[in-house]
Design goal:
- There is one protein chain.
- The protein is an all-alpha fold and 298 residues long.
- It is built from 16 helices and 2 strands.
- It has a two-stranded antiparallel ribbon with strand order 1-2.
- A hairpin with a 6-residue loop joins strand 1 and strand 2.
- Helix 2 packs across helix 11, helix 4 runs antiparallel to helix 5 and helix 4 runs parallel beside helix 15.
- The longest helix is centred in the first third of the chain and has 21 residues.
- It is globular.
Length: 298
C-alpha cells in the first residue's frame, strides 16, 4: 500500500482509478464523443442551445467542462466542492421549453442531469479502454463507482447513479427509446463536423479536425450512428484508429502535455509530491498485485 500524501488529496486521491485515467490525452476525443451522444437526448440538447452561446462559444464550453473535470479530479476538496456548487447554482436558475408542447422545464431535473452524466462518463471509459488504456474490468467498475461522486457534485443522488458496467448497460437500454435526432441534435452534429475557428487556426482545422471528429463519431455506439443517419467504420477499424492515436499522443511526455492550461495535474503533483503523478503503469501494477493476491488465495 502506498503511503498517503500529506496534502489534501481531493475527492478522489492518487490511489483512485479516476486519478490515473483523467490525465490521459484521449480524454479530449472522449469529450467530443460525449457531446455527440448527449445531443441525442432532446431535453438535454434543448437546454444547452436555449441557455448558452454554444454556436459561438463551443470552445469555451469545452474548456469549461475540461476545467470542471480537472478541478474535481485533481483539485483540493474545497475547490471541487466549490466547482460543484457553482454548477448546481447555475442549473437551478435555468429552464428550457419544448417547442412541440410549450412545456417549460428545469435544467436540473434529475433525469436530464443523469443522462448528461452517464453519456459523459461512458464516453471517457469507452474511448480510453478502446484506445489501449490498461483498465481491467474490475478497474472499470471501480471508476464508475468513483464517478458517482461527480454525479453528486452536479446535483444527483449518488444512489441513483449507475455504479458499474452492468448498471450502465441497463441504464442505456432504458433510455434508448427516448433518444432522437431533433433539429437541435442536427445542429450540434453540423457544428462538430465543421466548428467555427479563428482565421489563424483555419488551416489546422482543415488538417486535424476532420480526423478528430470522425474518430469521436466513430466511437459512438451503433444505435447513435443509426439515429444520426451517417455511416461509421466497423467497430474494429475504429478501435485500431483509437489505439494508433493513443500510442501517438501518449508518446508525448506527460510533463509536456500537462503544461497546457489549466495545468491541474501539475498543481496537484506540486501539492502532493512527485509520487502522485497519474500513470497507466500504476493501473497495470495494481492489477498485477490483485492477480498475485488471487493466486496466493487459490
Amino acid at each position: 500500500m502506498d503511503t498517503p500524501p500529506a496534502g489534501d488529496p481531493g475527492l478522489f486521491g492518487p490511489s483512485s482509478v479516476t486519478w490515473q485515467v483523467h490525465g490521459d490525452p484521449l480524454m479530449w476525443i472522449a469529450g467530443i464523443r460525449a457531446l455527440y451522444l448527449q445531443a441525442l437526448y432532446p431535453r438535454a440538447v434543448r437546454g444547452v442551445l436555449q441557455n448558452s452561446d454554444f454556436r459561438r462559444d463551443a470552445w469555451g464550453r469545452l474548456m469549461r467542462t475540461a476545467n470542471f473535470v480537472g478541478t474535481t479530479t485533481y483539485g483540493t476538496t474545497d475547490a471541487a466542492e466549490r466547482a460543484g456548487a457553482a454548477v448546481r447554482g447555475l442549473h437551478r436558475r435555468l429552464t428550457a421549453t419544448d417547442p412541440a408542447t410549450g412545456e417549460r422545464y428545469r435544467i436540473d431535473e434529475p433525469e436530464l442531469l443523469l443522462w448528461v452524466h452517464c453519456a459523459e462518463v461512458d464516453s471517457y471509459l469507452q474511448v480510453l479502454r478502446r484506445s489501449g488504456c490498461p483498465l481491467t474490468d474490475d478497474q472499470a467498475d471501480a471508476y464508475l463507482r468513483e464517478q458517482r461522486e461527480s454525479g453528486r457534485l452536479v446535483g444527483l443522488d449518488p444512489a441513483r447513479v449507475p455504479g458499474d458496467r452492468a448498471a450502465f448497460a441497463a441504464y442505456f437500454a432504458r433510455v434508448r427509446p427516448h433518444l432522437a435526432l431533433t433539429p437541435e441534435a442536427r445542429e450540434v452534429d453540423a457544428f462538430l463536423r465543421r466548428p467555427p475557428t479563428p482565421a489563424v487556426f483555419v488551416p489546422a482545422r482543415a488538417v486535424l479536425w476532420p480526423w478528430i471528429a470522425r474518430l469521436a463519431y466513430g466511437a459512438l455506439p451503433a444505435y447513435a450512428h443509426r439515429l444520426y443517419g451517417r455511416p461509421a467504420p466497423p467497430p474494429a477499424a475504429v478501435t485500431r484508429r483509437l489505439r494508433a492515436t493513443g500510442r501517438l499522443l501518449r508518446a508525448i511526455p506527460p510533463t509536456v502535455r500537462w503544461q497546457l492550461p489549466p495545468r491541474h495535474i501539475l498543481r496537484a503533483v506540486e501539492r502532493l509530491g512527485p509520487d502522485t503523478r497519474p500513470s497507466a503503469y500504476k493501473l497495470r501494477r495494481a492489477a498485477a498485485i490483485m492477480d498475485g493476491q488471487g493466486e496466493r488465495r487459490g
